[in-house]
């Protein structure tokens, strides 16, 4: 009986040596930052700012100033040691540097749109901290208010007419 047990044991051991399976396992994934969505006050991803029929004499004053309300909602809190930042870049006409690096050029020569967040200029083509959103909460959300004001280095030289300008806004944890 011992011989029989020994034979079965030996057979089992030999079978396991030659009968093992070799399996290759691939493990993949993607790490990503929490996603934040940005919309206008109406929930649309395109934000339109209408100045209407502005008077040339009002350029540079609060009379030709518009608020831009951006709604921000993030799916989770900020990663460690990172801050929510935004970058506004002109997509049409560029920057009107004669009045500052926060002024969008328009389609009318000498007319620009100065962008501010509170008292701070929104410097175009630069990453700036997003103020007013507490990113340490579970699902950060809130509103960011920007101000757009028509400006000109020389109001007397402005010509009446329809104007356009555009910019893109990107937000990211950095």
TrEMBL record:
Gene Ontology biological-process entries: cell adhesion involved in single-species biofilm formation
Record's GO cellular component terms: pilus
Signal peptide: none
Matches recorded under Gene3D superfamilies: Fimbrial-type adhesion domain
Fimbrial-type adhesion domain span: 25-174
Domain of life of the source: Bacteria
SUPFAM superfamilies, A to Z: Bacterial adhesins
Name by which UniProt lists this protein: Fimbrial protein
């Amino acid at each position: 009986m011992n011989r029989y047990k020994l034979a079965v044991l030996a057979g089992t051991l030999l079978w396991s040596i030659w009968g093992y399976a070799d399996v290759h396992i691939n493990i993949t994934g993607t790490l990503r930052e929490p996603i934040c969505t940005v919309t206008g006050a109406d929930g649309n991803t395109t934000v339109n700012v209408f100045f209407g029929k502005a008077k040339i004499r009002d350029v540079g004053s609060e009379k030709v100033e518009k608020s831009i309300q951006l709604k921000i909602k993030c799916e989770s809190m900020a990663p460690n040691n990172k801050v929510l930042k935004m970058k506004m870049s002109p997509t049409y006409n560029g920057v009107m540097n004669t009045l500052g690096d926060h002024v969008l050029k328009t389609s009318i020569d000498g007319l620009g749109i100065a962008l501010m967040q509170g008292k701070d200029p929104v410097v175009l083509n630069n990453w700036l901290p997003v103020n007013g959103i507490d990113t340490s909460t579970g699902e950060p959300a809130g509103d960011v208010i920007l101000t757009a004001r028509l400006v000109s280095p020389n109001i007397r030289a402005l010509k009446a007419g329809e104007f356009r300008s555009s910019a893109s806004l990107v937000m990211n944890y950095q």
